[in-house]
Amino acid sequence: MVTAATAPTPTAMDARRLGQIERRDTLAARNSCLAPGEDIAVRIRRWDEATRQAAYQDFKVPYQKWMRVLDVLNWIAENEATDLAYRWFCGSKMCGTCAVRINGREVLACWEAAEPVMTIEPLRNLPVIRDLVVDRAPYEKKIASFEPWIERREPYPSFPEPLNHKQMKDASKALDCISCMCCYSTCPVIGLGNLTDFAGPAPLVQLAQTALDPRNDPDKIKRSLALTGIFHCVSCYKCEEVCPASIPIVGRIIEPLKAKAVLLNPGMAKHSSALRDIVAARGWVEPSALVLRVQGLRVLARMPRAIRLLVRGKINPLKTLFGIRTAAAEAARRILRTGVAK
Amino acid sequence: MKFAYYPGCSARSTCAELNAATHLVAAKLGLELLQLESATCTGARELRAIDPPGFLTLNVRILALAESHGLPLMTICNTCTLNVLDAHAAFASDRELAAAINVKLAEEGLHYSGRTRISHFLWVLHENIGEQRLRELVVNPLTNMTIAAFYGCHITRPPSQYGFVDSRNNIALEKLAEVLGCQPIDYSGRNECCGFHTAAHDERVAIKLTGQHIQAAKTGGAQAMVTPCPLCHTILDGFQREIEKDVGHKLGMPILHLPQLVGLALGLSPDELNVDRHMVPVGALKAYAANAPKEPHR
């Protein structure tokens, strides 16, 4: 039976992907945008020892078939700038040391095809040691503070210990991480510096390797999670976009860690729990009610703003305080099965 | 063309002008909207993290409601769109889970068989109305209006859902703006994050994140920004005074909901589109509506 829901749309175009063809946004297109002998215009952000400042230096590199960004850097280091500092080791997406930014996007130099025009910069959000080499110490220090190992209080139930794939499904995704820090560089919240205590995507992935392992001691996980500031994640998915290991960082790492935090450290997750209670009671969210629940008396400090919102009709105090019985409330209550306070 | 229509929480409260504008514009476009009144919240970002079974059931229920009417689902909020898309994907990939959700839905006589097509209003404009028909419907081309498109995250990321290698390559909003007669500008904030999802407990992140994007749009010469997401609108418009305080100078950047921009080009007046309900005045944009024919909307 063909229903309206399955009937074909008038045009065959997919509006979700508009731009992918025009902007050559496919792997095949990216891998074939240069022909042997063509010049690659490369601009590298370098550390100038004389002026003690960063400056851009331009290079012209002859394209050779299958040239990667790493090959371009090697060519420059061999022919034009023998003092160019950059890191790499395995050349095959394993060691995670060659990450750089190409035209504003984090990539592994060893795994990205050269583009006709490239601005190559070091990763963001970490101190630059020289040229394209960043200091990994802040990242490693953060991970160490999470005590990233498994602790056991109880004796093992048996040996070998029963453990199935389902129990390990998220932790095993985290184990794909090669610590390249692409996600750490692209994260907008990390980009805000010390504004929040958010640990950032890469350290959270490292934490998830043991925190999402069912064998780990809950008290230890609780201690580590308290240091993560995880509820400052804005869910922008930029980390997932750049991850060379294709780890679903938001969906399979940060969200399961948040679920752990709600169970182990409910105080961290006041916002999430309040939203859940409001949906369960009202069917949908009255944003001002949520803000009132989460911020409590702190909203008094923002009265001028509340008044401005009130003037424009953006908030309705009656709805905020008393809610309204929406047509969706009954279904939400049944599905979410929570306490039905207001 | 008829759609089951899901406005989401924001468009029914703080951004009520978006819901009203969507209904008016849909009528102009010949889209019939059946608003799903008993649909719940999709759970924002919170429910999917802390209660995955509850999240999936609420979202599949919305898809089942649309399916019960035999209609595709139209959304106008990025986060809601990604939530129903993700729930649909989870439902379609796990038979056991699908069966369990349907047991829950059966309590109120609902069933989902996985057939509902999900489409954001932006995609409906491109796919179901089409560029050619839209050009015919434009009675008030917004010639020379410089527009900065602000996509928001959940309509263009994650790559597992939308397939972009680099989400900056999404041009759906710019293409649409051109059809309406506008001049889309290029600027660095197009595909950046507004920070809405942490704003209820700590608005500093959203305020710090967005100042640079609004500034970049202004420097690029934009007269207004347009967004397909009411959550982005809430930050860019609702928090703009706080953002101005943070960047230390006036921005005064009008922020339009996508249906409002389309509505202006289709001949609806700024008053009909409730632009005065925004926190940042759209005064200068009203000149673009001056030449619009004064025909009453349906």
Write up this protein.
The complex is a heterodimer of chains A (342) and B (298). Helices cover 35% and strands 11% of the residues of chain A. Chain A has helices at 27-30, 69-79, 137-145, 169-174, 182-186, 201-211, 218-225, 238-242, 249-264, 270-282, 287-295, 303-311, 317-322, 329-336; strands spanning 39-48, 53-62, 99-102, 105-108, 117-121, 128-130, 133-134. In chain A, a hairpin with a 4-residue loop joins strand 1 (39-48) and strand 2. In chain A, helix 7 crosses helix 9 (249-264) and helix 10 crosses helix 11. The longest helix of chain A is centred in the C-terminal third of the chain and has 16 residues, at 249-264. The two termini of chain A are 44 Å apart. With 298 residues, chain B is an alpha/beta fold. Chain B has helices at residues 16-29, 46-50, 52-68, 78-93, 95-106, 121-129, 131-137, 159-162, 172-179, 203-219, 230-238, 240-247, 258-265, and strands at residues 2-6, 32-35, 73-75, 118-120, 146-149, 183-184, 224-227, 255-257. In chain B, the strands form 2 sheets. Chain B has a 4-stranded parallel beta sheet with strand order 2-1-3-4, with helices on both faces. In chain B, helix 3 crosses helix 4. At the A-B interface, helix 8, helix 9, helix 10, helix 11 and helix 12 of A face helix 2, helix 3, helix 6, helix 8 and helix 10 of B.
In short:
The complex is a heterodimer of chains A (about 350) and B (about 300). Chain A contains 14 helices and 7 strands.
Features:
A: 342 residues; Ubiquitin-like (UB roll); Fumarate Reductase Iron-sulfur Protein, Chain B, domain 2; 3 domains; two-stranded antiparallel sheet; globular; disordered C terminus; B: 298 residues; alpha/beta; Glutathione S-transferase Yfyf (Class Pi), Chain A, domain 2; Rossmann fold; 4-stranded parallel β-sheet; 13 helices; 8 strands
